[in-house]
Design brief:
This protein is α+β, with helices and mostly antiparallel strands. The protein has three domains: 2-55; 75-157, Nucleic acid-binding proteins (OB fold (Dihydrolipoamide Acetyltransferase, E2P), Beta Barrel); 167-269, no CATH class. The chain has nine helices and six strands; from the N terminus they run αααββββαββααααα. The chain has helices at 2-40, 49-55, 57-64, 106-109, 151-190, 207-212, 216-240, 249-255, 259-269, and strands at 75-85, 88-93, 96-101, 103-104, 120-128, 137-145. It has a six-stranded mixed β-sheet with strand order 3-2-1-5-6-4. α7 (216-240) packs antiparallel against α8.
Length: 270
């Protein structure tokens, strides 16, 4: 009896340890290792991403539903159709157009054949995962043409209007926070000797040719300056937490390399 209990405890410990390793490795791969590699090798994906996509599918799906145990509530879009294809629908909005790409099951995709430009439609979108990225894509769940008197479409329009107002409010708040964070980053970077201060003038149009013409020693010098610049941006971003709401985090921000930085590195190493 005691041996059985001991074996059970050991088995539970092994399972718990394996679960911790599984979850921890997912977060490490998703939020650090893969974004770091892919930001440095854009547009290539890491070779392990297909295996990662399958092995961690449950956690990827959970993340796509905002870490909720229930599925994300479908998004409803009601409006006049300007253009429709098998995997895209374009709405004619006041003052512009909205194009939504998606995937769909065959039974739902077949409904697209009934839609014509000018039709008022109600479309419901969920989320789907693809193997080459972590950001979920749209999945068309249902589509129907609105009738002349259609309470369902009317309710969808009102809900959409309220969501658009709230989205605009959140976007304004987010933009303000982003600008404040970037300003704080810039103040920190100006005191960092690794940071290459961007000149007002645009770089010479031959910057790519100039880079390719560098001698070995000059290229080593320029590479070192650029890498130090990137690390300075990354460190400042981490300090002020400017990458918290961005896919790829601070590595995404640090990976954006203006050609003026390359131009400055070229000047210093020639």
């Amino acid at each position: 009896m005691r041996d059985r209990q001991t074996k059970r405890r050991i088995a539970l410990t092994v399972v718990l340890f394996a679960a911790i390793i599984y979850v921890a490795s997912f977060f490490w791969l998703r939020y650090w290792y893969l974004p770091t590699y892919e930001s440095n090798h854009f547009p290539d994906s890491h070779p392990i991403r297909p295996t990662y996509a399958v092995a961690y599918y449950p956690l990827r799906l959970w993340a796509a539903h905002d870490w909720s145990l229930s599925s994300r509530e479908p998004k409803i879009r009601v409006g006049k159709v300007a253009h429709v294809e098998r995997n895209l629908i374009e709405f004619d909005l006041e003052g512009g157009y909205l194009s939504i790409g998606f995937v769909c099951e065959a039974s739902v995709c077949s409904q697209l054949n009934k839609v014509r430009p000018g039709d008022q439609v109600e479309a419901r979108f969920g989320v789907a995962l693809v193997s080459d990225q972590d950001t979920p894509i749209n999945k068309l769940l249902a589509l129907r043409i609105c009738e002349a008197q259609d309470p369902g479409c009317d309710a969808g329009r009102e809900k959409q209007r309220q969501e658009d107002v709230e989205h605009q409010r959140r976007r304004e708040v987010s933009d303000k926070q982003r600008d404040e964070c970037r300003a704080a980053m810039e103040r920190t970077l100006l005191a960092d000797p690794r940071y290459i201060v961007l000149p007002e003038l645009e770089p010479a149009p031959t910057v790519v040719d100039d880079w390719n013409a560098l001698a070995k020693e000059q290229k080593i010098c320029a590479d070192a300056l650029i890498e130090a610049h990137r690390q300075a941006v990354f460190d400042s971003c981490n300090k002020h937490r400017c990458g918290d709401q961005i896919g790829g985090g601070c590595w995404h921000i640090a990976g954006q390399l203006p050609s003026r930085v390359v131009s400055q590195a070229l000047q210093k190493c020639n």
